[in-house]
Structure formats: structure tokens, C-alpha cells
Specification:
Elements (H helix, E strand, L loop, with lengths): L1 H16 L2 E9 L2 E9 L2 H21 L7 H11 L3 E2 L2 H16 L9 H6 L14 H10 L6 E4 L2 E4 L12 H15 L5 E5 L2 E5 L7 E6 L6 E7 L4 E6 L4 E4 L2 E4 L13 E8 L5 H4 L4 H6 L4 H7 L4 E6 L4 E4 H4 L3 E2 L6 E3 L1
Helix pairs in contact: 2-7
Length: 340
């Protein structure tokens, strides 16, 4: 009996020791994507990650802003002054993006696809150049907004032909929520999903929470690390993610709808969303108005009920909310200003 107990104990210890992180990497939505699954079942991890990557590919093809997709078909109909019937999914995404845009004073506004195209960001290999001033002025005068959309069931039309939808500031967060749902359906309880810096955690990594780094916007290293718990999501908007430099000036893809120019004043802004429905989506789109608001960033995070946020200003100074400061471990000698 004693020998049997020892053998069983050895088997159990061996089984426990097999638990590891199974990592799957890809490139989707124009950004690196990784899915890390913790457990001892390689087949389960493989099946879960494969299902998520198939979903990412579907979303990428369905809602691409400039290659033929359901979204470009809608944009073409709007430009012709026609209504279009879209999928239930796209209709729901547009309604939600409309709501988020309204809360953020339309600083986040996916209707500005024409502006994004003028700045050359509707391409995988863009050429550093400023847009034609007359074309830029025409878009600003037309003032396309998400509020121009009329969505009735699956029927979508626009009161303004200048509206061109680009869901680039929304889709990654939505994809996080879809990934979490798929992994749970597949029986994966512990995972970390990373879509170009938008991150969501499921469960834990063994007996510890998942831990992530917050990228320093000017150095190839994290400025801080953060434990991430089950159901939490983190999103960052930064001028270092997609940009070009011309005559010593950095021009990022984060465009201010009030001026038509890339926003200045903030290097990066990170928000953490505590567990709630659509936490992934909320980690993406609401970071945009806060980033574009500059020094008024805290007002915009409050509008979304976000208490965990960090801003790195244009001069490199760091501001962090009290709630997030309690969770962060800064790297080096960073001295953040803590605010409520």
C-alpha cells in the first residue's frame, strides 16, 4: 500500500510538472498577435488557439478598411448616397461605436476613414508625406461623424456622404472579446491574448496571475509591469505604434478630428478594464478620446467609468491614477504623478 501511494504521488507530481505555457503567434489586423495558453493539454491549447486565429482572420477579412470587405462595400454605398444591408454583427459594432463616440465627444470617431486615407495610413507600407491641404480641408468641412449613421436593424445609411468607416480603433478590442468567448467554449480556462498591445487575461498562470509589461513609448523596454487577473483587459494608444517622421516631426495614425492632424501632447495612454461584459472592446476604443484629449485625459477616462489609467505626456512625464499606481511596478527610476 505504501509503495502504491508513493507511485501515485509520483505520477501526480509528474502530471503537474507538465503544465506549461503553449504559445501561438501570428500577424493579423496589421499587428503581431499572440495567444498563450497555460495547462498540461497541448492538444486543447492547440485547438483553442487555432479556433481563435481563424476568428481573427475572419474579422480581418470582413472588416478591412481598404481591401475588399463588407466594410468597404458599406463605405461604397454611403459614398453613392445609398443604404446598405449589413450583417447583424457589423450593425451591432456600428451601434456600439456610435455610442462610444458620443460619450467621448466624438474624439474617437470611426467615420473618419477618409482622413486616415489622406494621411496614407490605409496601406501596409505607407510613404511619409503630408496630405494635400485642399483635400484635408474638404474632409474637415464635410465633418463626417458616426452620428451621421442611421442604423435600423441591418439597414445602414448615412446623412453625410463623406462618412467612411474605419474600425481600426475598435476591432482589436472586439476581437479580444471574441477570443475570450471562443477559448472558454473550447474549455481553455487560463490564457493571455495579446493583439498588438491590447491584452486580455483568462484565469491564471499556475499559482500566479498573468503579468504583462506596459511598453515605454520611446525605449524598447517596459516602463512598468502589471499583474492581470481573470477577465481583465488592458489597452494602449500610443504615437509609437504606427507613425512616420518627416522633417524631424513624428506623425502618428491617431488623428484629431477637430484639426485633421495627428495628435500631439501625449506619447501613450494606457487603460485597464476590470472584469465586465465587453471588457476587451472597452480596453480599445475608449483609450482614443483620452489620448486625443491631452491634458484633459482624466476627464475622458472618468466618462467611461475607468479608474485605472496611465498617461505619458509629450515631455515624458508620467501621470497615473491612484487605483492603477497600486497595481504597477515601475522599472527604473520613474517618478509618476499620482492623481485621483
Amino acid at each position: 500500500m505504501r509503495l502504491l501511494i508513493l507511485v501515485l504521488a509520483a505520477v501526480l507530481l509528474t502530471a503537474c510538472s507538465r503544465a506549461e505555457v503553449f504559445r501561438h503567434d501570428a500577424f493579423v489586423f496589421g499587428t503581431p498577435v499572440s495567444i498563450a495558453v497555460y495547462g498540461d493539454d497541448a492538444a486543447l491549447a492547440e485547438a483553442g488557439a487555432a479556433a481563435v486565429l481563424r476568428e481573427f482572420d475572419r474579422l480581418h477579412r470582413a472588416y478591412h478598411a481598404w481591401e475588399p470587405s463588407e466594410l468597404t462595400a458599406l463605405n461604397a454605398a454611403i459614398a453613392r448616397g445609398e443604404a446598405a444591408e449589413v450583417s447583424d454583427e457589423l450593425a451591432a459594432m456600428l451601434k456600439d461605436a456610435q455610442r462610444i463616440a458620443a460619450i467621448g465627444d466624438e474624439l474617437f470617431d470611426p467615420a473618419l476613414g477618409a482622413l486616415v486615407a489622406l494621411w496614407g495610413f490605409h496601406t501596409d507600407t505607407f510613404v511619409p508625406q503630408r496630405p494635400d491641404p485642399d483635400k484635408l480641408r474638404a474632409v474637415l468641412e464635410a465633418r463626417p461623424r458616426m452620428a451621421d449613421l442611421v442604423i435600423e436593424g441591418k439597414r445602414v445609411e448615412s446623412r453625410n456622404r463623406a462618412v467612411q468607416i474605419d474600425l481600426g480603433g475598435y476591432a482589436k478590442g472586439y476581437a479580444l472579446d471574441r477570443a475570450a468567448a471562443i477559448l472558454r467554449e473550447k474549455g481553455v480556462a487560463n490564457a493571455l491574448i495579446n493583439i498588438g498591445g491590447n491584452v486580455m487575461a483568462l484565469g491564471r498562470k499556475g499559482d500566479q496571475p498573468w503579468r504583462i509589461g506596459i511598453q515605454h513609448p520611446r525605449e524598447p523596454a517596459p516602463i512598468a509591469t502589471l499583474p492581470l487577473y481573470d477577465g481583465e483587459a488592458v489597452g494602449t494608444s500610443g504615437d509609437y505604434q504606427r507613425y512616420f517622421e518627416l522633417d524631424g516631426v513624428r506623425y502618428s495614425h491617431l488623428l484629431d478630428p477637430r484639426t485633421g492632424q495627428p495628435a500631439h501632447g501625449t506619447q501613450s495612454l494606457t487603460i485597464l478594464i476590470t472584469p465586465q461584459p465587453n471588457a476587451g472592446t472597452l480596453s480599445d476604443a475608449p483609450s482614443k478620446p483620452a489620448y486625443l484629449a491631452g491634458d484633459a485625459w482624466r476627464e475622458h477616462t472618468r466618462r467611461f467609468g475607468i479608474e485605472h489609467a496611465l498617461r505619458i505626456a509629450e515631455d515624458g512625464s508620467v501621470e497615473v491614477t491612484r487605483a492603477l499606481r497600486a497595481r504597477l511596478q515601475f522599472v527604473g527610476t520613474v517618478a509618476p504623478k499620482v492623481i485621483d
